[in-house]
Amino acid sequence: MDFFDVLSQRHSVREFSSRAVEERTLNKILNAANTAPSAGNLQSYEIVVIRGPKQKAALARAAFDQDFMTAAPAILVFCADPAKSAAKYHRRGTELFCIQDATIAASYAQLAAAALGLGSVWVGAFDENLAARIVGGLKPICILPIGYPGGTPDITSRRRLAELVHHEHL
Fold this sequence. Notes:
The chain is an alpha+beta fold. The chain has 6 helices and 4 strands; from the N terminus they run ααβαβαβαβα.
């Protein structure tokens, strides 16, 4: 699929079919995340793959009862590694760069999923402490349920470029 087609066809999917995500397909998504740029090439993030029904249910509860997540065949949790980034970038690494690294990797994974015909939705609303317990004490930044869409997602409107882009006038 053309890159710009991927961008235009990616929408938030909250309804998933029961079809499993093949291991080969999941690995393509994870490899795409691994190609994401990161501060100092430290890759100061970890990805936790959740497939078990109990863990998915616990994660949905931690995400303020977003129960649709339990229907996703796989959930990727992108976690920051502040210590890894701090070793080189100190406070800025702890407070920003590791978070950017995790979000860029999640974005790459989300676009790869769309290119492979899967749906996903970025879940940022969750209780960080509860989610951290589920992922082994890591610092969760983004939860990305993925799977084959079970319906047609709602298409949301976007801001016009004139409202969002500002050009410097010298």
